[in-house]
Automatic annotation (TrEMBL):
One of its GO terms (molecular function) is zinc ion binding. The keyword Transcription applies. This is Xylanolytic transcriptional activator regulatory domain-containing protein. It holds the Pfam family Fungal_trans. One of its GO terms (cellular component) is nucleus. Keywords: DNA-binding, Nucleus, Transcription, Transcription regulation. Residues 70-143 form the Xylanolytic transcriptional activator regulatory domain. The keyword DNA-binding applies.
């Protein structure tokens, strides 16, 4: 475990050249790999320590181009965690209050990492559904087992947010197998509208209960880092919640041109899409501010792979918003320029950043070309409806936004999966 900590610590040294950083961290990682012997532990009884080691390995592999290893390592950690009962209240861990708290934190990390990686790659989540009750969401009340005078710590709020994220992730998974289709299972791409409102109210309550991040403080504490991560995750979770509605909002505009006044559903969809864009902008603002914030050891407060991941999510939604330029053009343009500038500043950290940035620029230009005003007589001629429609849909699919695919669906995107090293 110590070697994995050294491997991750080496990756945090952003001032070092990428080759030197990767070489040194890989040395520590291989030591940990040979000591853990993953080919053996899969056949032995699991333990909490084994799950912790595999989670640290997953964190390290997120800094590398080894997506398959990342996926399989995380899957192994999750399966072992379930086998030793971490998914059950109390689990099979019989120890002190501290040990039980660590076990709960480890399980929450398993679920969170699996949900985020699965959602980002458009794959079904392997984590069991996290027990979740809406009773704790009403009126901003505290979760069960907490009295009204108890101040919920950042860690406890993180756990509650993980449950919400898990619920959203499960509710947006489609029954894509032929057996499910043969049984006529209903296709569900998002929670019911009232449920969405309840979740959004709780996310708002969590966000409003947090103190501001002290970006101007000369001394950054560990609690400040956790606070910033929690704010990032709240915006990320709200994007997860509203993304299918944003997709529907853009796709319905392509499919039919409605006449007359918009109805209530149109207003709700537009408001949801606007909130999705607003939270993408929040991600961008928080990441931009964090880049200049260092802790007492001189390291940037948020690891670079987290920053790139959240920038990646934000830029996807900024580009998608431009599919409706009549609504979002004036709102998104400045944010897009800022996002490009911030992501460009990370190019020295990984070759994948430059490749991803170039792909995003191509998508942005493609959307702009579709909507730009005609400049020649030839362009004045009305384009064929199908061609225009397919051009927009092509961009939409490339972004992973499809009405019938609520996740990102990046499995076939060579420009991303062959090079990404932060998801």
């Amino acid at each position: 475990m110590l070697n994995l900590v050294f491997a991750l610590s080496t990756q945090l040294q952003e001032s070092n050249p990428p080759e030197q950083r990767h070489s040194a961290s890989r040395t520590f990682f291989l030591r940990a790999w040979h000591l853990l012997r993953p080919e053996i532990i899969l056949w032995q009884a699991g333990s909490l320590e084994t799950v912790q080691c595999l989670l640290l390995m997953t964190r390290y592999l997120q800094c590398t181009p080894n997506l398959q290893q990342t996926w399989m390592t995380l899957g192994s950690a999750l399966r072992i965690a379930v086998s030793i009962g971490l998914d059950r209240p109390g689990g099979n861990i019989s120890g002190s209050r501290r040990e039980n708290s660590v076990a709960l934190d480890v399980w929450q990390q398993c679920v969170l990492m699996d949900r985020c990686l699965s959602w980002s790659l458009g794959r079904p989540s392997s984590a069991p559904r996290v027990p979740f009750s809406f009773n704790s969401l009403r009126n901003g009340s505290n979760p069960p087992n907490y009295d009204s005078e108890t101040v919920i710590s950042v860690s406890e709020k993180m756990q509650e947010l993980t449950k919400i994220t898990g619920y959203i992730g499960v509710s947006q998974v489609l029954p894509s197998s032929s057996s499910a289709e043969g049984l006529g299972l209903a296709t569900q791409t998002q929670p019911e509208p009232y449920t969405v409102i309840q979740i959004d109210e709780r996310l708002t309550g969590l966000e409003n209960s947090l103190p501001p991040v002290p970006f101007n403080s000369p001394n950054v504490e560990s609690a400040d880092r956790q606070l910033l991560l929690l704010r990032l995750r709240i915006s990320y979770t709200r994007i997860m919640l509203l993304r299918p509605t944003m997709a529907h909002f853009c796709l319905s505009h392509l499919q039919t041109q409605k006449s007359g006044e918009p109805n209530l559903g149109d207003h709700i969809n537009q408001t949801s899409a606007t909130l999705c864009v607003t939270n993408a902008q929040k991600l961008l603002t928080l990441i931009q501010a964090s880049c200049s914030q260092q802790d007492q050891t001189g390291l940037v407060i948020i690891p670079w792979w987290y920053r790139i991941f959240f920038l990646y999510i934000a830029m996807q939604h900024l580009i998608t918003a431009m599919l409706r330029p009549e609504i979002f053009a004036t709102v998104v343009q400045e944010s897009w320029n800022t996002a490009v500038s911030v992501l460009s500043a990370h190019e020295h950290l990984s070759l994948s950043v430059g490749k991803c940035l170039n792909s995003f620029r191509l998508m942005w230009q493609k959307v702009s070309d579709i909507h730009r005003a005609p400049t020649t007589q030839e362009e004045v001629l009305p384009p064929h409806d199908a061609d225009c429609d397919m051009g927009l849909r092509d961009v939409f699919r490339h972004l992973g936004f499809d009405e019938e695919i609520p996740l990102f669906g990046l499995d076939d995107s060579e420009w991303l999966l062959g090079n990404v090293d932060w998801v």
